[in-house]
Amino acid sequence: MCQLWLFQEGHRSVGVRCLELPSWWVRLALLNLPFERRGASTSQCTPDCSHRLAAGDVRCRGAGLITEVVRRFNWGVSDTYVDLGAVTVPSGVLVLAMAGRIDSWRETARPLSERALAAAALGGGHLYEFEGSEPLPWSGEAIAVRAAVGRPLRVRALTSPSPIDRRPMISLLEADLGIPWPQEQAGCPVVLGDMPVDRCGVVLGDARALDGFTGRDGEATDGLADVTYWGRHGEAAQAEFGGEPIPQHRGAGGVLGWRDVPLAEAERIAERLRAWLRDGPGKGLMVAVNKHTDLYRLKRAGLNHALLAGVVEVDGCQVLGIGWDAAEHSMYHRGERAQGQVYPATLESRDGEGVLRWTISSFSPEPDKA
Hints:
The chain has 8 helices and 20 strands. By secondary structure, the protein is of the alpha+beta class. Strand 9 and strand 10 (168-180) form a beta hairpin. The chain is elongated. It starts with a strand and ends in an 11-residue tail after the last strand.
């Protein structure tokens, strides 16, 4: 197996580790693509190493090797983009962030937006929840880039079929930036960093809007909640308490409940269901109260989308959320950064304008025996 790195600083790698690829495959890619190793001066790094490499640091066509290898490695990737929606960025900085840790950034020394704006001013970069360190397993990470202020920015994806059920899964995420791409960098991607696939999904939105984003442990933005229940005694509970079928991803059935209920009433309904279970069957029914946090609203907005993509308004901005199917995440992205499951984010050119691309390996074949 080969681990592919592009950039070095002295004897320490500071670039993006792409994938653990079979060595024969990397050799084949190197034969077909130009490759050049470029240095990065320590004077170009910010004190908290929040940007890795500025836009001007990458001037060779070989920088495209990272994303090209991954794209070629994802057998079965569609050539047709799937539209996921649009985001708005009045601050002029677009952020791609891990959704599960988004509200933990408020506990760090500086707000996410302050760090994102600083990184974007240097050409874009990779941010870590804990400043002054390398990205740590199970902590927040984000990519920040400059983007156009006065127009919606479309987000799209390329997909490959899931080996589980052949349904589409994201292999490449691409967001318009609405900013002209410099002619001198034509055909030259800019590597920003690498990021794991968060099991809670990712969010794309305005840097300042995400400062107030409410995640898993946040409060309801509208004072409402959804109450759901499911399990062996679901039909008996419905006969006793009522409740309507709640749509689920990929047509999964059996989930019943009520939507858009005032939070206090939602808690009372859930307690009545739990009391009925304690006094009767004892087990065989799961009950959940889902407060309308921004994270939950995004999840709900994406339930009927093939790629679990949904858009909601946060602080007056359109924010996009993308979920991951639990089975697919467990098989292909489990362990996240702790197991080296990280994927490159790059700035690239599309029709003369810049785009942010996150190239995700969907699956890996068996390693070679050499």
